[in-house]
Amino acid sequence: MYYELYIDVLFLENFMMDSLLLLAVNRILKCGRAYGRIFLGGALGSALTCLVIAVPFPAVIKLIFFHFVINSVMLAAGLAIGSIVQFVKAFILLYLSAIILGGILQMFRPYIRYVSLFYAAAAVCFFVFSKVWSAAAALFRNGREILEVTVFADGKNYPLKALWDTGNVLTDPFTGEPVNILDPKTAEEIFGPAEQIRGFRIIPYRCVSGESIMKVFRAERMCIRKDGEAWVEAPLMGIGEGPLCECGEYQMILNPGTLAQ
């Protein structure tokens, strides 16, 4: 018993599936990669799949390639994920997306005679999956959303992404002003060169590990884009202890009290 395999059909089918999976992971993790790069990752993954099938590797080697190597190459080429933690998340999410998307397509495949309709069904499944995931994420976000903000300091402006977190109620205990938290690297870019000139203050705050202290600066002003533009004069900026977001989705945690100033 043998199977007749058309390598071009195999490549196109895998290219479509791999690209859809990378698009799903890119959207869910908000990596912001260009379509060209994602399709390149899908093409590379499909080409490696065809190569492993065509070459008579031992079964164990093929198993390793199919489940670890090819997926890793796809993620590296298509999404260019830097951190190990984020890569593991993307790897797991890729598998979960493949299981869900593959399961849905297997349900409809016996009823689809033409390959073009199968591809169209795959695209529809991807669209539905993305919408369902976005709806679920919004349901569990609990008052958290990403906003565009611009911080002005030393005559320069710094466009940033900020997490609007209703759970952030950090205030300066001396003035009662709300404190927005910056990622350390972003804070260094904005305030580092002029730190000695401008000066800073230290405020105490409570975190998960107990009591700690935070260095705070005062920016010239800030523009928050939420249902229009809101301008805040001389907002307080605190420096977080570590990276705020591993995937770089946002560089600031915005205190909702800032808009009430």
UniProtKB/TrEMBL annotation:
The keyword Cytoplasm does not apply. Keywords: Membrane, Transmembrane, Transmembrane helix. GO terms for molecular function: aspartic-type endopeptidase activity. One of its GO terms (biological process) is asexual sporulation. Pfam families: Peptidase_U4 (PF03419). Coiled coil: none annotated. The chain crosses the membrane at residues 6-26, 38-57, 63-85, 92-112, 118-140. This is Sigma-E processing peptidase SpoIIGA.
